[in-house]
Amino acid sequence: MTDILNLEPKAVWSHFADFCSIPHPSGHEQGIAEYLCEFAKKNGLEFKVEECGNVIIKKPATKGYENKDTVILQSHIDMVPVADNSVVHDFLKDPIIPVVKEDGFVYAKGTTLGADDGIGACTTLAILEDKELNHGPLIAVFTVEEESTMKGALQIAPEVLQEGKYLINLDSEDDDFLFVACAGSADINLKFTSKRIEVEDAKGFSVSLSGLKGGHSGTDIDKGRANAAEVLSAILLDVSDNTCDLFLSDFTSGHVRNSIPSTAKITVKVPNDRAEEFIKSVKASFAFYQDFYKGTDPDMTLSVNETKCDKAFGLTDTQTFLSLIRALPLGPIRPWDINPDIVETSVNLGLVSSDDNGLYLCLMPRSLKESGLDDIISKLSVFSSLIDNLEIEIDNRHPCWESPSDNSLISCLKKNYKEITGKDMIVTALHAGLECAMFAAKAPNLQLVSLGATINSPHSPFERVSIQGTKNVYEAVKRTLSQL
Q1: Which pairs count as long-range contacts for 292-297, CB under 8 Å and 24+ apart, including other chains?
Q2: Are 413 and 476 in contact (CB under 8 A)?
Q3: CATH topology assigned to domain 2-183+400-483
Q4: Are 173 and 433 in contact (CB under 8 A)?
Q5: Beta-carbon neighbour count of residue 288 at 10 Å?
Q6: Could you report the per-residue pLDDT of 17-26, keeping only the tens digit for each?
Q7: Which are the catalytic amino acids?
Q8: Do residues 432 and 216 lie in contact, with contact meaning Cβ atoms separated by under 8 Å?
Q9: pLDDT, tens digit (0-9, with 9 covering 90-100), for 332-355
Q10: Could you check whether the bond before residue 317 is cis, i.e. omega within 30 degrees of 0?
Q11: Domain parsing of the chain, residue ranges
């Protein structure tokens, strides 16, 4: 922790160290909310907590800047809770342990770091407590459950947003970019109804896949990384097709819907007389995928262990379910027509689970276009209709967002960033969800933009945030606030 407190800007990293010490996964942001309220009291700032849990802090203009337009600084205070398979971590109790490395980034010890979006929130706090900065009226908006339900953005009082002329969202993850558009998304739940049966003369085995990179299901979806659930399904389907019958008992993969799963575990029953062949076949199939993904997931590992296993799903249902996962359209689906280097539409399989009534899949399609989201949801619905005992539920649709690519806010941020770094910021779209989509609907006259320090592999235990990028964004926003 001492190392992180020595980083610049000290005010940002001091708050971030405090954030790391307070558990705050989605739906459990109360500790951070209390921290923000105490911060406001300490600094003599007006604040309120909305019924949904959002914290709003207002800072009046400095002398001589009273007639300037109001700027809203916005970030979310929840984080995605994902731990490495080898790490025991209770995200409701245990602190995040930040680690400063020589590559210029801050990581966490075996878990997600929470820089998404803790670093944005702490940048705002550092600005609010700066006594030397000249600025117009400021409103700091700290929202809840961005990583799960978008509750804070959906339920924020419109009048809070309508007070501002400008809104700077500090939740994007590349400090050389300004984002003026983002993807919409939906939650798709698939339930494959099945009942476990007794399987005689069979041994139980657990097959675990781990060490994959995982990552953010939007910003990392184009990197070709393996999805643990998909790969493990492919391995066992290959064994089932070519070696021996399998009876699936349990399947677990992933932690949250909007993360590419880095681990998966399947429990199966195998006929006693085919047990040795099963183990050899699983390892042989794994070797194929280990080679296939060696460029993106070099640390992929597999373990096969005999285990106690009672009932299991039938042979046909096992084959059908594994085939379903294998056939799903996952990953990038379509490039953006404006810039083919950016993904327009994608699908992520984030969660797999099972119980006595069947097996469950949680997917998240995204698209920069509402029509693209309509199309992929339609395809998944038609796909699901072809399989008996499969139910589909579509929920929590969130809109796309697109703002003008040039306005006074964008011009000011670009100018200041160029002066600080010598680099031109690129104005573009983000293949991920931003709360800006909901804000734009509630306050159509707002000038909206999103930026943030570079964060690699968010939503995974490999998450890291750039130290220099954090400083660059902090300085660019401060200068902009003094000039708007």
Answers
A1: 293/212, 293/225, 293/226, 293/231, 295/224, 296/213, 296/223, 296/224, 296/225, 296/226, 297/211, 297/212, 297/213, 297/225, 297/226
A2: yes
A3: Aminopeptidase (3.40.630)
A4: no
A5: 12
A6: 999 999 999 9
A7: 78, 146
A8: yes
A9: 999 999 999 999 999 999 999 999
A10: no
A11: 2-183+400-483, 185-398
